[in-house]
């Protein structure tokens, strides 16, 4: 199976690198500057699960290649419009597209552009970042990909994909209810990124403050309420399950969005929090904490654009 990873950053580089280490046929679609760095230095992973460095195969935008069997998209949502245009030459009749982005909105966008039958449901759990020298630094015990047919169930093609992703040094789960899995993560990420950026803090101090904890619980309830009202696959236990997960993380844990803000990088405000507010029934219910989070992020974006 021929894999194309869109991006060789913290997430795509990690999972793609592990597949290279296993011996799978992997190509990275990267910008010309990244291509040169990878040609000169190779792909380097520094991980609690073992370090690894290797040469990798790359192509850059505008280069030609035959369609790939599986394209894994591991970029930020604000890059997606350009990525879809760049990917079109590499998508064939049998190509599977597996997005690992956070959120929900992008699935519909990808399905509309490439065709619903080509797009799988997918997500990942990992804590990773890029070091100053370009090495991928992976620091969490968890490093997993969850995927499945968007309509549910299993298929011959997802079983085949599972066989190629399996035994590559990370956890892989084939889900028969991937939309539920997507929403489970979306709610956790949206509430986590919302509260950590609003409070400008890691999780520990937030949960240690009774006032901040209450605000987080209200934010979580607002997000779950929107999802349930929109008919999304979100069970009655979602608030409790998400609170338990939040309580289980290390005090120094924070969201990638919070880390991006500290570095003055772009954030996925529209894709994560704006999309939730757009899903809400206008005028019927107010969501004061989520609206505050969204306003905070939009102000950050406006100020950051002027830097």
UniProtKB/TrEMBL annotation:
Its EC number is 1.1.1.169. It catalyses: (R)-pantoate + NADP(+) = 2-dehydropantoate + NADPH + H(+). Keywords: NADP, Oxidoreductase, Pantothenate biosynthesis. Pathway: Cofactor biosynthesis; (R)-pantothenate biosynthesis; (R)-pantoate from 3-methyl-2-oxobutanoate: step 2/2. Belongs to the ketopantoate reductase family. Pfam families: ApbA (PF02558), ApbA_C (PF08546). It comes from the Bacteria. Residues 177-300 form the Ketopantoate reductase C-terminal domain. Catalyzes the NADPH-dependent reduction of ketopantoate into pantoic acid. This is 2-dehydropantoate 2-reductase. It comes from Paenibacillus odorifer. Residues 4-151 form the Ketopantoate reductase N-terminal domain.
């Amino acid at each position: 199976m021929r894999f194309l990873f869109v991006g060789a950053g913290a997430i795509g580089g990690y999972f793609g690198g592990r597949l290279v280490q296993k011996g799978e046929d992997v190509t990275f679609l990267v910008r010309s500057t990244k291509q040169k760095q990878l040609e000169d230095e190779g792909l380097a992973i520094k991980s609690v699960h073992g370090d690894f460095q290797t040469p990798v195969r790359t192509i850059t935008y505008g280069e030609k290649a035959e369609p790939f069997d599986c394209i894994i998209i591991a970029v930020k949502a604000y890059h997606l419009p350009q990525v879809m245009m760049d990917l079109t030459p590499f998508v064939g009749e049998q190509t599977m597209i597996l997005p690992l982005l956070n959120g929900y909105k992008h699935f519909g966008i990808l399905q509309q552009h490439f065709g619903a039958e080509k797009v799988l449901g997918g997500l990942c759990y990992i804590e990773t970042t890029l070091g100053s020298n370009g090495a991928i630094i992976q620091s969490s015990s968890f490093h997993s990909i969850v995927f499945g047919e968007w309509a549910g169930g299993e298929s011959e093609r997802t079983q085949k994909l599972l066989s190629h992703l399996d035994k590559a040094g990370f956890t892989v789960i084939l889900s028969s209810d991937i939309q539920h899995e997507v929403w489970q993560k979306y709610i956790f990420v949206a509430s986590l990124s919302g509260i950590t950026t609003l409070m400008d803090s890691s999780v520990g101090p937030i949960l240690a403050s009774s006032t901040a904890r209450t605000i987080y619980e209200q934010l979580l309830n607002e997000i779950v309420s929107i999802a349930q009202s929109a008919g999304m696959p979100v069970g009655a236990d979602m608030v409790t399950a998400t609170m338990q997960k939040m309580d289980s993380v290390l005090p120094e844990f924070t969201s990638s969005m919070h880390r991006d803000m500290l570095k003055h990088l772009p954030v996925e405000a529209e894709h994560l929090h704006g999309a939730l507010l757009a899903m809400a029934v206008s005028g019927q219910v107010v969501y004061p904490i989520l609206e505050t989070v969204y306003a905070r992020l939009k102000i950050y974006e406006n100020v950051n654009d002027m830097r």
